[in-house]
Amino acid sequence: MVDFDRKPSDKSAEERAFDVLNAAYTEKFGKPYVFDFAQEAMTWQETLEDIQRRIDNDDPQTPPKYIPDVDY
């Protein structure tokens, strides 16, 4: 059951760090960092490191390659 009286919880340190890095990523590459839940299962730390590495190395994410006629 949803408790509509519960106040929202504060963001974690990792979520706040993601917001800062994602803003920098978006500014540099023109679109936000995308979580690929189907392919990647990274921890917060791995995700933050990946975003920072991509910013530092001018390496934006590439879209996934989909195989025609396959259900995802």
- What average pLDDT do the residues reach? 90
Radius of gyration: 16 Å
Could you state the order of secondary-structure elements as H and E?
Answer: HH
The largest β sheet comes out as: none
Given the structure, what is the number of helices?
2
Oligomer: single chain
Structural class: mainly alpha
Helix content: 40-55%
Low-confidence stretches: none
Number of strands: 0
> What is the overall silhouette?
extended
Q: In percent terms, what proportion of residues is strand? A: under 5%
Tell me the span between the first and last alpha carbons. Answer: 30 Å
In short:
By secondary structure, the protein is mainly alpha-helical. The chain is built from 2 helices and no strands. It has a domain of 44 residues.
Task: Present the secondary structure layout.
Blueprint: H1 13-29, H2 44-56
Features:
72 residues, extended, 0% strand, mainly alpha
Overall description:
The protein is an all-alpha fold and about 70 residues long. The protein has a domain at about 15-55. It has 2 helices and no strands. It has helices spanning about 15-30, 45-55. Helix 1 (about 15-30) packs parallel to helix 2 (about 45-55). The longest helix is centred in the N-terminal third of the chain and has 17 residues, at about 15-30. About 5% of the residues are buried. The mean pLDDT is about 90.
